[in-house]
Amino acid sequence: MTKNLKPKPTTSEKITNWVGTPFSICVHTVAFLGIYSLYFYGLGFDEINLILTTVVSLEAIYLALLIQMSVNRQAQSLQDVQEDIEEISEDVEEIAEDVEGLEKNVDEIQEDVEDLGQDMDKISKEVVEMNEDDEVTMSSTQQKTLENIELTLKHIINEIDAIKQNVAGQTKHKQPEAAQDKKPRWKIF
Q1: In this structure, how many other beta carbons lie within 10 angstroms of the beta carbon of residue 16?
Q2: What angle do CA 43, 49, 42 make, to 5 degrees?
Q3: pLDDT confidence of residue 186
Q4: What is the pTM of this model?
């Protein structure tokens, strides 16, 4: 069940909303024309026009006040939205900075892995040379340890490649347009 975040309209909002409807126009037209029926009750046109002018003037004053109240509420609502947009923009900028930091970390890890890979290649070559020369014989424990180190290094390289691809994929999909231009697109008066 979702909550309605919009507050319940006040009486002034209801009146302002009603005045802007076609039904309101019809009611006002009938009332303005109907006031001239007072002529049949003995009032003259001067008195009818005086009553009509007074009623219309009072209605205009109250409608202007109600409309100004609506405008003030809308201005406050727009200001709240602008503040929310600014907060979201700041969050997006922070996320973009975090992603840049992650990319740097992944690059550093990749460099370390490449260095480890080069060291592993050197060690592998030395092991091959030692086996070929038969000058030094490794014990089976040393051979197994070396093989385990080799497998572990290969596993680490594969995991870092996967992390780097994952971070690169997230950077492409999650970086919103607002983070690219870093300028608010809307201007509130």
Answers
A1: 20
A2: 5
A3: 46
A4: 0.44
